[in-house]
Amino acid sequence: MNQAPPEDWTRHLPALLRPYAEKGPVGALLLGMASGFPIAMIAATLTTRLAESGIEKKTVTAFALALLMYNLKLLWAPVIDRVRLPLLAALIGHRRAWLLVTALGVVLAVAWLGLADPVTQLPTVVAAAIAVGFAGASFDIVIDAYRIENLSPEQLGTGSGMTQYGWRIGNALAASTVLVLAGRAGWSVAYVAATLFVLPALAAALLLGEPERPAVSGAAKRGWAAVQDAVVAPLADFLTRQGAALTLVFVLLHKIGDTVANLSLRLLFADLGFSKDEIAGYDVGIGFVALLVGIFVGGLLYKVIGLKWSVLISLVLMGISNLGFALLAIAGHSNLGMALAIGFENFSSGFGGVAVGAYFAALCDHRFTATQFALVSAAASVVGRLFSASTAGGLIETLGYVDFYFVTTLLAVPGIAIFAYMMRAGLVEDALPPAKPVSPA
Predict the structure, then answer these.
(1) By residue range, what is the domain housing residue 51?
(2) Alpha-carbon torsion (196, 287, 346, 66), positive or negative
(3) CB 202: neighbour CB atoms within 10 A?
(4) pTM of the prediction?
(5) Do 383 and 261 sit in the same domain of this protein?
C-alpha cells in the first residue's frame, strides 16, 4: 500500500518566509554558522587571551599572519576542488568528504591552540594559530563550494542571506562562548569546548546530502595534465566567457569606496569624541539590527526583481552610505547622525552582501566552484584593502573627513557605471557559465 507523501509544513508559513525555510537556504544558514567560528578563535578572542597573558603588543599584532591564510586560500583551493579523497569520497561523496576532513582539521587546530600556553609555549601558540587559519580557510573553501552547489539558481539570493545570518551568529556565539567559559574554567577548556561549533556544518551535510556536479568525462589526469585541469582550466573557463574581462574589472573595482570608508570609521568616531560605549551601542545595537534587516530585504527583493537589478540597487546604496559619514563629519558629535549613518551603512551592507554574494555564486561553474569562488571573493576586496593600506590615512590627513568620504563615494561610481553598462549590453548573462548536464559526485 502506497503511503502518502509527508505534508510540506512550509506551506503554513507566510509566502515571504517560505524561501527561508527551504532545505538549501537552511543548509546555508548552518554552514555559515560553522564558517564564522574558526576566525573568531584567532581574531579578538586570541588577542584578549594574549593580552591577559602579558604578551607585548608588537608580538600580539604579529598573529595577524594567521588571518592572512584566508587571503591566500586561492593557492590550495584547486586541490580541494579536484582531488578526490581515497575511500571517503566514494563512501559519502567528494564535497562531503572534504567537509568532514577540514572540519576535523579545524577541531584539532583549535584544540591545539587552546592547550598551548602563551606564557611558556609562545612559538607553539604561533604555530597553532597559523594552523587554525589554514584549517579555517580550507573549511571555508569547502563550505562555499558545497552551499553554492546545493542551491538552485532561484535560491542564490536567499541562500546568500542565510549564509550571512549564519556567519554572524556563529562568529558572535563562538567568541562570546569562549570568553564566558574562559572566565570560569580557563582558556584551554573554553577553546576545546568551542570546537563543537563545527557541528552545524556536519548537520548541513546530513540535511543536504552530496550535491550533483557536472559529469567529468575521460580518464583521470596525472602530472602536468592534472595541474592544468585543477588550476588552468578554472581560470580559462572564466576568462574565455563573453564579457569576462569587464566582469573581472567590475569585481576588482566595485567595492573600493565601501572598503576604504569602512576601514576608517573607527578613526572618525574617535575624533568626533564618541565613547567606546557609544560606539558599541550604535554598532552592535542599531548596526547589527539594520544589517539583519538589510539581509532580509535583500533576499526578498532578489526573488522579486532578480539578480541584475538587485546588484545595481545594492551598489547605489553602498555608494550613498559613504555620504552618510560625510554628513556625520559635518554634524560632529551627533547621536542622531551616528544612528542614521551606522544604520544606513549596515542596511546597505546586508542588502549588498545578499545581491553581490548571489552574483558571485552565479559566476561559478559547478565543475570548478571552489576555485572560481575563491578567486572572485579574493579579488573583490584586494584593491580596496591595498588602497586603504597605502593611501587612506594620508587622504584623511590631507583632505579631512568630509572630503575624504566624498572621495570614497566617487570611488563607488566606476563599479555602478560598469555594471549598468554590463546590464545594458547583456554581458551580465554572457559572463555566467552555461548550464551543463550533471551527475552525482
Answers:
(1) 14-210
(2) negative
(3) 15
(4) 0.77
(5) yes
